[in-house]
Amino acid sequence: MGEPRWVEVRVVADGGVDEKRFVKAVQQLRKELAGEGLPTQDVKEPGGLAQDDGSIAIAVALVGAGGAVPTLVAVLRDWIQRRKSPGKIVVTLGDDAIEMERPTFDERAELLEAFLKRHS
């Protein structure tokens, strides 16, 4: 099957969001990714869980023959649409990144899928 490609999914908190609720929401995202068969692991951050911008990152393995990319996009879309204050999601693969927010997620979903496929 080959080595999986690891994608960093960084969730950036919306201003004023409760830190405990934010951490719990990101844990829920990780659970949903794993529930769809997408392996995850922690991203080691210097100095702790979150960056200075209040973000938390999850590494997601894209495994399988192409089915992982649409699954990842669908899980991210569903998760961000359910958030009251979702902030944004930044997906990074190598040196390239794409930023997604709830108001623009649907219109940018195809760009995200193309972005992920471009790096296969």
TrEMBL record:
Keywords on record: Membrane, Transmembrane, Transmembrane helix
**InterPro entries per record:** EACC1
Domain of life the protein comes from: Bacteria
Transmembrane ranges, per UniProt, are: 56-76
What protein am I looking at?
A: Uncharacterized protein
Q: Which organism is it from?
A: Kribbella rubisoli
Q: What is the lineage of its organism?
A: Bacteria, Bacillati, Actinomycetota, Actinomycetes, Propionibacteriales
